[in-house]
Write a structure and sequence with these properties.
Blueprint lengths: L4 H20 L9 H11 L5 E7 L4 E11 L4 E2 L6 E2 L4 H14 L21 E4 L4 E4 L7 H6 L20 H9 L15 H15 L3 H13 L10 H4 L5 E4 L6 E4 L22 E2 L1 H12 L3 E2 L2 E2 L3 H7 L16 E2 L7 E4 L5 E5 L4 E6 L14 H10 L6
Length: about 400
Amino acid sequence: MHTPLRRRTALATAIAASLSLFVAAPLRAEAPSAIAAALQPFVESHTLAGAVTLVTDKDRTLAVDTVGFADIAAGKRMTPDAIFWIASMSKPITATAFMVLVDEGKVSLDDPVEKFLPEFKGQKVASGDAKNPVTKVPVHPITVRNVLSHTSGLPPHSPIEMPTLDLFPLAERVKSYAAMTLMSEPDSSYKYSNAGINTAGRIIEVVSGMSYEQFLQEKFFTPLGMKDTTFTPSKSQIARIAKSYKPNAAKNGLEETVVSQLKYPLDDPSRQPMPAGGLFSTAEDLAKFCRMLLNGGQLDGRRYISEKALRTMTGNQTGNLPTSYGLGWAVDKNPGGPFGHGGAYATNMQINPGAGIATIYLVQHAGYPNGDEGKKVLPAFQKAAAALAPKR
């Protein structure tokens, strides 16, 4: 039986009207996560350009959040796969790689560096004072433990590492450290030193017979699936690197800058790897590395370092000195406490075995504007992330 024309017209009109209301109704925006909500005010105040954050437990990623911009001028929003120069976060990765050699019995932490690098034989330590500088033979030669814990007395860097840190092959840079006078007696003080960590990277090369970067690739990056962790990003990876920012002249906002410690272009094959601070990476890649450590040095059925090596490198190696530091890791003085590391452009990762989580905070900031406001950003993230820790 056919519907009369008038009834069909009325029905069509009603359907069209209801569809119109459905399409016109605004979609409900998804509420921001607690982490994004904690960081968004810093974006709005022009303290933070943008960030990628990640929280993981030993089994899986619990949260990935992005806020702000990877490129403010271009209006390019931050994305989870953005790449960052992680700077000194390279140090704990180098130290973890070094512990593979310790596990294999090829190196002892108390071996003198000169056992592997003869150029360090006869190195002297500064003595006297500024008016009467003299040198003398140190109480003992610097050890592997010393260079990994910043207690060697080596200067932060050498003159050949200017204007950028990545100009010369690792072997040449390390020889330049050996030619320098120690600033203090080994073990007597904590002096943060890229030279020390780079020296450890050179020992990896001598002992393993591989280049430093090849050793990291074969022992960690490839098996862990850290596909975007590299010293020399490709052109496609460079396109994903978040822009770097610094406070503007008025200290009330941000302006774009570049990483002055690095040579450009970043894919220039003449650039050299820096064990102390040369890596680029992503939140996802670093999460895999952190999960391996949360699992006691193993992941997905593969062991990377022994539990003993993990305890050693993340335990306090600086004794009663004011700064507590492990081997390539900033550590808590209490055994089993949190350990982690930051980078020059404000990046950070922290592993908290007690809470069962690791946090990764990726930004590209050469300082924050607005006085002390910038100091609140990382703590705001970490406070929000703590709420995701597994219930014990």
